[in-house]
Amino acid sequence: MKKKLSFIITVFLMMSILVLSACAGGDSEGDGKVGGITFYSPETPDMTKELGKKFEELHGGSVNVQYAGTNILVNRMMAEKDNPQGDVWYGGGGILPFEAAAEKGIIGAYVPDIANGWDTVEDGIKVKHQDGKYVGVEVFVLGFAYNTELVKEDEAPKTWDDLLDPKWKGKIQFPNPAASGTATLMVLNQMMQRGEAEGWDYFKKLVDQASSMPDSGSAPTKAVSMGEAHIGVGFDFMAYEQKANGESVDFVVPDKTPILVNPVSIVEGGPNPEGGKKLIDFLLSKDGQQILANWYHIPINPDVESKTPLTLEGVKSHAVDLDIDWVNDNYDRVRNEWKDKFQ
């Protein structure tokens, strides 16, 4: 009787292990194609889910979108470093968090075939990591949204210095650099272009011009759409989404400004690396790029037409050369100095 009971328990345990293995996300054979892929992203949830559904439609498998802010996702990947749970990380407002992550050992190297021929830096824009730790999937431009009912096109600011014109006093919003990565990029860029002493002087004047400095990177553009501000500093797609929704908003690409790719990376040691690589391939394919374009992002694939007036070819002459090593070395210090000076 004891032998029979032991045999039944053994069979039950073996069946349980088989069931659990079949359900595991990292099993690339689980659904006959690519298995389950865990997709970390801070980008617009509806857009990211649309990307996942289109991938499933074309390639099978299942894409589990895990949405959270960039810093939260990075902290999660650090906490999971000894037992990674994610497969792909896409988006973070540009390359800066990916540059930092490359030093932390949480993202792996993978360059899709379409990006193999790219130089690391193209026309002043870093489009992929020198060791293949990330590759850009779209282009973000930092510039000025303006309300077309309050500001005529020819009167809108065209340079960063134009924001200091007395006519804009009390009519500008930009995000709080202590909270927003978008605004931190703005501050770091001005420090690199002007030098720190002149850069801090510039921001002392700009703070006096501003009516508000909200914590959210997209809030100034929304304020422009509602007529609460004449000018708002933000990324291009924020303005063009508002414009497409019928709001009185347009966008200026400043003469010299940060233009960054928004990257994607494979998670180092993730449970389904082959599925993750296929998802990255998809993001750079025409199908994936078209979804990004439909959400008013500038696609990096030249075969896909942007839904906005902006294209990579058209904006690259505006790009400033960002010293990424300087950014990595000074990111936290500059943000802390901002808090000390202006909060």
Automatic annotation (TrEMBL):
Transmembrane segments: none annotated. CDD domains: PBP2_Fe3_thiamine_like (cd13518). Residues 1-24 form the signal peptide. InterPro entries: Ferric-bd. Keywords: Signal. It comes from the Bacteria. PANTHER family: ABC TRANSPORTER SUBSTRATE-BINDING PROTEIN (PTHR30006:SF2), THIAMINE-BINDING PERIPLASMIC PROTEIN-RELATED (PTHR30006). This is Iron(III) transport system substrate-binding protein. It comes from Cytobacillus purgationiresistens.
